[in-house]
Amino acid sequence: MGIYDQAKEVFSEVLSKVNPSQGNLLVVGCSTSTIQGDMPGTNSSEDIAEDLYRALTEVFGKDFDIAVQCCEHLNRALIVEKKVAEKYDLPIVNVVPHRHAGGAFATKHYSSLSEPVAVEDIKSKAVVGIDIGGVMIGMHMRPVVVPAKLEHRHIGEAIVIAGTSRYKYIGGERARYDQ
Description:
Layout: H1 3-16, E1 25-30, H2 32-35, H3 46-60, E2 65-69, E3 78-81, H4 82-87, E4 92-93, H5 104-112, E5 116-119, E6 128-132, E7 145-147, E8 154-155, E9 158-165
Parallel strand pairs: 1-2, 1-6
Antiparallel strand pairs: 2-3, 3-5, 4-5, 6-9, 7-9, 8-9
Helix pairs in contact: 1-3, 3-5
């Protein structure tokens, strides 16, 4: 099974575990190097980024605002559509990702948007997160993160970890909660 098919399978499974009433901001971090079995940042692939991005937008593109995390060379800034930055009141920064600073996947996202911008962070507002290859997206997730127990946990050689979020439970033993 190729990268596109694996990604579509994983992304579809993640979507099936999401509670859309919680919101629609998705954060994705990806190392195309890790997908190939290499260390992150050592073998960035535009072809893999293209396959992943096509699968991502087919599964999530209509109903979700997508934020793609850049690599550590850009301090894990995120690429979003300008209207998404405005919607969530996100701090825009001036940088354009490329394959060797930002990564192939963030570069692909940037080049695919009509008005791309980089933001410093998304203020822990993501309600769905997908981490492909251990790129550490957790800082962008809204508390409380609930891991998605995936049957399909690999794209290429990279391990995929995903999660969604739920509202915090407050109260004591007499409290009742919405499902």
